[in-house]
Amino acid sequence: MMLKGKTALVTGSTSGIGLGLACALAQQGARVMLNGFGDVEAARAEVASAGPGGEVDYHGADMSRPEEIEAMVRACEARFGAVDILVNNAGIQHVAPVQDFPAERWDAILAINLSSAFHTTRFALPGMLARGWGRIVNVASVHGLVASSQKSAYVAAKHGLVGLTKAVALETATTGVTVNAICPGWVLTPLVQKQVDARAARDGVDEAEATRRLLGEKQPSMAFTTPEQLGALAVFLCSAAADNVRGQAWGVDGGWLAQ
């Protein structure tokens, strides 16, 4: 119940990593505002059952639209009284060589994976500073620290998100607000499952072999990170033990960056 009385706004939280983070925060007593385009009622039920208080709401802001992002932050403040914990998790992906990369996909990825975090931060941060406490957790990626081919927009956005994390951490360094990034490697989310399925179809192999090949290229542990593990890290970053953890890009990548 470490987070009892706190409110968490988690973007992109109706499935995958975001839902895992929302559940982990709820388990510690936080009220949760969900956001995303997945199965809203299923996500609400899962988060409500995870937390002892079961206080959860949802806002359907399009994370590419600043005016809707502001409306979401204000709705969270109106519903729960504050945004104490902001988790920027919303993200999309597109894979193509840069010369073939559709410009509209580049713009969408930068808007949702990077600019949305800027907007949520600028709207939520003043309240955190006024209250003297806050946590901003940006879900970046191992691709915020190292590149892979055919993912130019995603890599650029995630590198930018790590940079944004560091800059805002410096601006808030003498306050009760901390800003950090989590940088996962492969996590078995619906987004990654599509890549596994595509590889299986391309290579003519079953799902298990496609998974082995996917992990074998980058992730030495040969195991997916789980949303629950990332949720536990987010809870730590919200704890008093992490009061002086600031501006970190925390890898959870099965050894990816150690190579």
Question: Can you offer a commentary on this structure?
Answer:
With 259 residues, this protein is of the alpha/beta class. It has two domains: 7-185 and 226-251, Rossmann fold (3-Layer(aba) Sandwich); 187-224, no CATH class. The protein is built from eight helices and seven strands. The chain has helices spanning 16-27, 40-50, 66-80, 103-131, 152-171, 190-203, 207-218, 227-237, and strands spanning 7-10, 31-34, 56-58, 85-88, 134-139, 177-184, 249-252. A seven-stranded parallel β-sheet has the order 3-2-1-4-5-6-7, sandwiched between helices. Strand 4, helix 4 and strand 5 (134-139) form a beta-alpha-beta unit. Helix 1 packs parallel to helix 2, helix 1 (16-27) crosses helix 8 and helix 4 packs parallel to helix 5. It is globular, with a radius of gyration of 18 Å. The mean pLDDT is 97.
Question: Topology, please?
Answer:
Elements lengths: L6 E4 L5 H12 L3 E4 L5 H11 L5 E3 L7 H15 L4 E4 L14 H29 L2 E6 L12 H20 L5 E8 L5 H14 L3 H12 L8 H11 L11 E4 L7
Parallel strand pairs: 1-2, 1-4, 2-3, 4-5, 5-6, 6-7
Helix pairs in contact: 1-2, 1-8, 3-4, 4-5, 6-7
